[in-house]
């Protein structure tokens, strides 16, 4: 198949910041513990040291840190140490661990769930993996690096330097909404804190020599029946046998060059949906004669998602999304994985009556999607491509495209089997100039962006044709970009950044734009962001900006406009909870305060208002 990258630009592509990740296994299945596989979570206290002079690699810090202190893994380092609050440069982690002797004869891997942003891994003094881009897992085989009689020394370097060629860009020559208008420190092109560190678990795991490397599941509905199409990839060109079992339905797998495919028909199917998030385990096994040699289990929900005309359909029926944009953010650990917080957030989503959220503005943890599957929450799965600017040079655009394509491949490989994931979102608020909505966008930038997003759209459809694709458009952004995608997602702030304090005019402007977009594009529209900064406990009558009353009235106007238009497929309030930003004159206390919950999850008046609207049925 022709590589879509060939079409991106008239400008010759520049070399990527790094070549393809060394030693990594992008898209590795989520590690499981079973009779054939083992996992060893290395979360805990590690040695840690900042490296502001970038001297550690040359000085072989992967063997010994000269002045370490303790750090928790996972977490962001920025809220732990006074001298590291605004530090996003290079830092080092180091630990020692015995690999269980019972793992001898198996293949052993080290997997990092998320390292933001650029990462290198050493095991016993040897570089085994490099990865660029946070929020997605990568793994490296370390079987040959292990000494079974001595502890393994694991060293990981991480940095989140604000480089213009990265995605998201740490800085942009053309400026941007947050580097130009908002400002802030640390300076970013996006409106959330640039947390750095090992944000999710580091896991060591083992698998049999010949093992299941990947599983892809596609589900469809055919009348009262369901169909589960399964594709299995096994290592070493496996040409033996296996089995696929889904409840009482079982079928043989016959591998050829490591690949086997089978289709399972499920009579009287019970479709997965928010009202009935029915899951059933799919068990895949490999066999050597009569002996089972490997197994992998994943939970499957049978459902379909499609766009038909100006409606978004789940299982053939129109669905209206109610929910939020969110962030992985909490005091002390920053973006570090927090299972109790995750459970609490889902409890609050259920309490407020939400059925969905967007993983703004990066992929969330695998556990977040596991819970969404179990609880029936619909997820728009978003890449880290926030604040792309197409007024920058063709060289920068080409470098960013390379990273966007890698991130898309990694995201789809990781999340393709989750029934909760109903849309892929390829970017948030791309811009064709320095400040959105100010003046006309340069035609060359609009054209460059159109080519860029057509490449990404085609790539997603080639990897996964079962889900619609969207892009979250900034106010004043080109309609041409929105027209490429299946669902039109728009971030709108009439009544806040535009027409502040004038809610009648804001509601009229929103209604006019919704009708205009529908007339031009004829597609379902999602209002993917709308909200106001609100200081908890601040009140006024009549409502004034920054007060809780104003936030409620603002949300009321948007919900009224959406509910009177059947082509509006849903609304996602910005934001679920207040979150940390850089310091700046427009971000009091270093927080974006558009949450309907405070950063520590206390409800504002807006949360109670949304509950009254969304829990009526």
The N- to C-terminal Cα distance equals: 48 Å
Q: Main beta sheet, described?
A: 8 strands, parallel, barrel
Shape: globular
Q: State the helical fraction.
A: 10-25%
Which features characterize this protein?
617 residues, 29% strand, 32 strands, Immunoglobulin-like, alpha+beta, 6-stranded antiparallel sheet, 3 domains, TIM Barrel
Question: What do these coordinates show?
Answer:
- It is built from nine helices and 32 strands.
- It has three domains: 38-160 and 195-207, Jelly Rolls; 212-300, Immunoglobulins (Immunoglobulin-like, Sandwich), CATH 2.60.40.10; 319-614, Alpha-Beta Barrel (TIM Barrel).
- β26 (421-428), α5 and β27 (469-473) form a beta-alpha-beta unit.
- It is an alpha+beta fold.
- The two termini are 48 Å apart.
SSE diagram, text form:
Layout: E1 38-41, E2 44-50, E3 69-73, E4 91-97, E5 107-112, E6 115-116, E7 118-123, E8 126-132, E9 138-141, E10 152-159, H1 177-182, E11 197-198, E12 202-207, E13 212-222, E14 225-234, E15 241-246, E16 249-254, E17 259-266, E18 280-288, E19 291-300, E20 305-308, E21 311-314, E22 317-318, E23 321-325, H2 339-352, E24 356-358, H3 366-375, E25 378-382, H4 394-415, E26 421-428, H5 443-463, E27 469-473, H6 479-482, E28 487-491, H7 503-521, E29 525-529, H8 548-563, E30 568-573, E31 579-580, E32 591-592, H9 605-614
Parallel strand pairs: 23-24, 23-30, 24-25, 25-26, 26-27, 27-28, 28-29, 29-30
Antiparallel strand pairs: 1-12, 2-3, 2-4, 4-10, 5-9, 5-12, 6-11, 7-8, 7-10, 13-14, 14-17, 15-16, 15-18, 18-19, 20-21, 21-22, 31-32
């Amino acid at each position: 198949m022709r590589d879509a990258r060939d079409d991106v630009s008239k400008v010759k592509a520049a070399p990527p910041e790094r070549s393809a990740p060394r030693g990594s296994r992008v898209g590795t299945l989520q590690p499981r513990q079973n009779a054939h596989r083992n996992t060893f979570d290395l979360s805990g206290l590690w040695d840690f040291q900042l490296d502001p002079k970038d001297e550690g690699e040359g000085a072989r810090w992967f063997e010994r840190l000269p002045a370490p202190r303790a750090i928790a893994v996972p977490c962001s380092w920025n809220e732990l140490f006074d001298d590291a609050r605004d530090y996003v440069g290079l830092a080092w982690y180091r630990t020692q661990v015995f690999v269980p002797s019972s793992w001898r004869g198996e293949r052993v891997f080290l997997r990092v769930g998320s390292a933001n942003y650029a990462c290198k891994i050493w095991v016993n003094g040897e570089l085994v993996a490099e990865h660029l881009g946070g929020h997605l897992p990568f793994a490296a085989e370390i079987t040959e690096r292990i000494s079974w009689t001595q502890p393994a020394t694991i060293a990981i370097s991480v940095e989140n330097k604000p480089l213009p060629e990265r995605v998201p860009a740490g800085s942009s020559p053309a400026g941007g909404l947050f580097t130009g208008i908002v400002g802030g420190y640390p300076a970013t092109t996006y409106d959330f804190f640039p947390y750095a560190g090992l944000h999710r678990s580091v896991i060591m795991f083992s698998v049999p020599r010949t093992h299941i490397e990947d599983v892809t599941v596609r589900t469809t509905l055919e009348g009262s029946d369901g169909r589960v199409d399964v594709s299995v990839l096994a290592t070493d060109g496996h040409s033996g046998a296996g089995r696929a079992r889904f409840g009482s339905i079982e079928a043989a797998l016959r591998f050829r060059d490591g690949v086997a495919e089978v289709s399972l028909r499920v009579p009287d199917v019970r479709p997965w949906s928010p009202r009935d998030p029915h899951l059933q385990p799919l068990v895949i096994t490999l066999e050597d004669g009569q002996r089972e040699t490997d197994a992998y289990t994943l939970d499957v929900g049978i459902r379909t998602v499609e766009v038909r005309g100006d409606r978004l359909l789940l299982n053939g029926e129109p669905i209206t999304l109610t929910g939020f944009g969110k962030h992985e953010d909490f005091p002390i650990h920053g973006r570090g994985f927090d299972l109790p917080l995750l459970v609490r957030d889902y409890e609050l989503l259920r309490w407020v009556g939400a059925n969905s959220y967007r993983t703004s503005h990066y992929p969330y943890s695998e556990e977040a999607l596991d819970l969404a599957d179990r609880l029936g929450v619909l997820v728009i799965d978003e890449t880290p491509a926030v604040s792309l600017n197409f007024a920058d040079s063709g060289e920068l655009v080409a470098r960013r495209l390379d990273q966007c394509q890698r991130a898309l491949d990694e995201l789809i490989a990781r999340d393709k089997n989750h029934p909760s994931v109903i849309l892929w979102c390829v970017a948030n608020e791309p811009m064709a100039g320095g400040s959105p909505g100010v003046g006309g966008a340069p035609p060359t930038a609009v054209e460059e962006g159109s080519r860029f997003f057509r490449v990404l759209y085609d790539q997603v459809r080639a990897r996964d044709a079962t889900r619609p694709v969207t892009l979250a458009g900034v106010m004043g952004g080109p309609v041409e970009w929105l027209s490429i995608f299946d669902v039109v997602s728009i971030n709108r702030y009439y009544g806040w950044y535009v027409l502040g304090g004038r809610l009648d005019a804001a509601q009229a402007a929103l209604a006019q734009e919704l009708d205009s977009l529908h007339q031009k594009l004829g597609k379902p529209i999602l209002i993917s962001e709308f909200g106001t900064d609100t200081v908890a406990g601040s009140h006024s009558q009549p409502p004034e900006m920054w007060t809780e009353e104003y936030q409620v009235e603002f949300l009321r106007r948007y919900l009224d406009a959406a509910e009177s238009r059947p082509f509006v497929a849903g609304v996602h309030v910005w934001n679920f909870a207040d979150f940390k930003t850089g310091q700046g004159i427009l971000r009091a206390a270093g927080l974006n305060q558009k949450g309907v919950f405070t950063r520590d999850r206390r409800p504002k008046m807006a949360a109670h208002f949304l509950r009254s609207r969304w829990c009526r049925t």
